[in-house]
Protein: Diacylglycerol/lipid kinase family protein
Amino acid sequence: MRRVMVRNPTGGDGTDVETARERASERGIDVRDSDEPGDAVALARAAAAEADQIIACGGDGTVNEVVRGVAAADALDDVELAVVPAGTGNNFAANLGIESVEHAFEVAETGERRRLDLGVADDALFVNSCLGGLIAEASEDTDDEAKARIGSLAYALQTLSDARQYEGPLLEIRAGASHDPLWSGTALVLLIGNGRRFLGGGRTQANLEDGRLEVVIVEQAPAIDYLAEGALQRLLKRDASHLTRLTTAELLVTTTDRPMAFSFDGEIVERQSIDASVREGAMRFRVGDAYEPEPAPWPPE
Ligand SMILES: Nc1ncnc2c1ncn2[C@@H]1O[C@H](COP(=O)(O)OP(=O)(O)OP(=O)(O)O)[C@@H](O)[C@H]1O
Structure:
């Protein structure tokens, strides 16, 4: 099997990406480093013509770029993906049951192959999540040191402590292929998960093989201490009245007053609307033993 590693040498604090480079060299794996944001797309696109397996080494942003590169080469059916967690949060790798850099190499060689869903937002792909609103606006100016210390979602929560002053965009949300009107109002945060689940605490892996997205609309900031430990769990408590939640194969989000910031696996864009859907089982990934093909159902209705 021909393996190529596409690596973001600036991922995380630099330690894991370096260890990964050494482990890859020991195994004779060809390592190709990105020079700037977006470069991993071009590297993966070129690698897709030569490799059977591409190993994305970095954080969620790097996995996203590699998947987009393979899609651009029209090779989603031909190339399998392995992930080496060497970014800051590595949420997607955790969702695949990958525990460490060393473990990732074992999984790349002997892990089970599973066909997983990819999220689509207009013409962009996302593997883990598409976050809209304040949370994406906050990560636009996330300070790397703070993000490394407490995690990007927790960091974004800090800004929610000012949320009573924040006027969210006016949204219209339609679901399903028939685009039935579902919800409208001002939302603080819109969380759309493909690989990532946002409610209920504990495990964050969503069902990656069901052809559906798990969606949470956070309508307003409840009075909780956002800087205290467990703030995220309290905000996303499954029965909280400030939340609307649904699963759907397709979601059309339109803002009627001003554009909204969205984060596709960490990449920030501004949009007046997005049409989110799923490409079911679009790509083969190597997964660890802790990966759950059928995680417990999302909070039952
Ligand atoms: N050589 C490079 N120099 C600067 N930035 C890069 C380079 N290669 C990739 N990037 C950018 O760095 C961003 C973050 O990368 P990545 O997601 O891999 O790591 P992270 O932010 O440390 O981890 P996580 O996403 O898990 O929190 C990506 O959006 C990518 O475009």
